[in-house]
Amino acid sequence: MKNSYKTIASIKNECRNFATEVLAQDLTQYDDDALRVIANEATEPVEIAAAVTEVIFRKTGLKLFACQLETAYALFNGHIAELSTGEGKTLAGVVAAIMYVKSGRRVQVLVFNDYLAKRDATENQKIYEFCGVSVGFITETTKTLNRNEEYSKDVLYIPAREAGYDYIRNFVASSSAEVVGSEFDVAIVDEADSILID
Q1: Are strands 107-111 and 186-189 parallel, antiparallel or unpaired?
Q2: Is the entire prediction scored with pTM above 0.90?
């Protein structure tokens, strides 16, 4: 019986092919209303990523590179990916998160601290909302009632420690009103080396 394991080389090749397909899509001829429809209705990873790539350009002026799309596809398939500082891992994570949401999943982006949770959710909110995806964030000072509201979003940026604390708090809660969060689904771990070591 043949095993189902993939080699690193084959995974890299799949990611490269994905990025090539996405970059071959040209959505520049669509106005914002038409692009919003495409971004909201796309169901295939290449279609979703192509729409998000165009949305990112229109909202930020930044064009995604192949390495960012390769990273997004790797994350979408549950792999660890590495990008050097300044290569745009935050936007790669946005693409992956939206692909997950469009496939029916709920995403928590685990970041290193409160500042990053607030910054990344706030700065990318216009991208998510254009694509029909709700986004929120939690920090150390977020109250219980607000935490539940944020946990209900499609994509949640949260420091890894806060996600861990919420999980523990639920075990010692004395009433259902004190329980926060939702069922775990998908986690995208930003700064995986730092967070996983901690």
Answers
A1: parallel
A2: yes
